[in-house]
Design goal:
It is built from 4 helices and 8 strands. It has an 8-stranded antiparallel barrel. A hairpin with a 5-residue loop joins strand 2 and strand 3. The two termini are 27 Å apart. InterPro entries: Dimeric_a/b-barrel (IPR011008), NIPSNAP (IPR012577). It comes from Streptomyces albidocamelliae. Pfam families: NIPSNAP (PF07978). This is NIPSNAP family protein.
């Protein structure tokens, strides 16, 4: 089980593809280089100005060190202004403990459920009946956020899973998500030809 961030960004109208292109071109390898594991990246099918993604760390200490390395490093310094310009809000972040989640290649839609159970024991009974390993169940990580430069939501206890399941009898947000296709990797110094030049860049934090 890893420390996982589920990050939901509200973007300026029309900026999502700009952010996704920059993210896939620069921020995937930039984060991986400092030890961050990237999970799924998604377009919210019900909100054209929302980008959803996950990243994971072995533990909280690794998270702090990796975030410090990335957000003080050359990739973020070069692209942060363009990235931040795509965003209205990047603070909708849940800190979780779970297996992480990346959709299978070729998946066209993923259903994610963010559930707020009122009783942990009752939820465990529900999960035993209706959720399997493929649902990649995550729970709130209640450790203090020791990288306050990037806020996380606090004061709530959530369960998150991926894929269809019997509706839970507690308040829940259901997200219909389209996986982002990975950016083709070219040889060093050669930019993949997507038939158009990228627009202004985009981003992921602060």
């Amino acid at each position: 089980m890893s420390i996982v961030e589920l990050r939901q960004y509200t973007l300026h109208p029309g900026a999502r593809e700009t952010l996704i292109e920059l993210f896939e071109r620069e921020f995937v390898t930039g984060q991986q280089a400092v030890g961050i594991t990237l999970g799924g990246r998604f377009r919210d099918l019900d909100d054209p100005d929302r980008f959803v993604w996950l990243r994971a760390f072995p533990d909280m200490a690794h998270r702090r060190r990796a975030l410090e390395a990335f957000y003080t490093g050359p990739v973020w310094r070069e692209h942060r202004d363009t990235a931040n310009a795509t965003m209205i809000d990047s603070d909708d972040v849940l800190l979780l403990r779970g297996p992480g989640f990346t959709p299978e290649p070729g998946t066209s839609e993923v259903l994610a459920t963010v559930c707020h159970p009122t009783d942990a024991a009752d939820f465990d009974t529900y999960a035993a009946r209706h959720l399997g390993p493929g649902h990649a169940l995550h729970r709130t990580e209640h450790a203090e956020n020791d990288f306050p430069r990037l806020p996380v939501r606090t004061g709530e206890d959530v369960r998150i899973w991926f894929g269809p399941a019997e509706p839970a009898p507690w308040p829940a947000q259901r997200l219909r998500l389209e996986p982002v296709k990975p950016w083709p990797r070219a040889s060093p110094g050669v930019r993949p030809d997507h038939g158009r030049e990228p627009g202004s860049a985009s981003e992921l934090g602060r």
